[in-house]
Specification:
α1 (3-14) runs antiparallel to α2 (27-61), α2 packs across α4 (98-109) and α2 (27-61) crosses α5 (112-129). The chain has one domain (3-149). The protein is an all-alpha fold. 78% of the residues lie in helices and 0% in strands. The chain has helices spanning 3-14, 27-61, 65-93, 98-109, 112-129, 139-149.
Length: 150
């Protein structure tokens, strides 16, 4: 089974995705769908993320700040592309228009409470798939160790 087929099967199993009369997804459906999209993108990008992180560490150690900043930009661009591909795959499979999905997501993020929910969801995805090491126990601890290692 190819990656998209497995993803589509998971989307189907996690459905249905309720919509408002306007066509936008309900809050719960938007969160559920975004969780699946984020999980797929995270898993697909994880290996590449590690390669790019090692590249950035080397550039930082060599004091090549401009190249480091370009590498950060490259990471962001590549992850955005993976997220876009996962989103497009999901909404096409579920027959949701791009406009309805974008408006659903914008509406969800208009609330600070929902923003916290989404941030927690992303952290839970990382925690689920990353080995438990001192580096990923908490963001604060990670930053401290990272700075000490450099």
């Amino acid at each position: 089974m190819n990656k998209d087929a497995a993803f589509h099967k998971k989307l189907d199993q996690q459905g249905p995705y309720a919509r408002e009369p306007t066509g936008i997804l309900t809050k719960d459906s938007t969160i559920k769908l975004r969780h699946l999209i984020t999980e797929k993108a995270y898993l697909e990008f994880r290996e590449r993320r590690d390669e790019l992180l090692n590249e950035r560490i080397s550039l930082m150690k060599a004091n090549r700040q401009q190249d480091y900043m370009k590498s950060v930009g490259k990471s962001l661009t590549e992850y955005r592309d993976v997220m876009q591909k996962a989103t497009t795959s999901a909404i096409n499979f579920l027959d949701i228009t791009e406009n309805d999905y974008v408006n659903s997501f914008k509406q969800l993020l208009s609330s600070p409470e929902n923003q916290k929910i989404m941030m927690k969801m992303e952290e839970e995805i990382r925690d689920k798939y990353e080995p438990q090491t001192p580096l990923n126990k908490s963001q604060t601890e990670y930053k401290k160790i990272y700075c000490e290692k450099l």
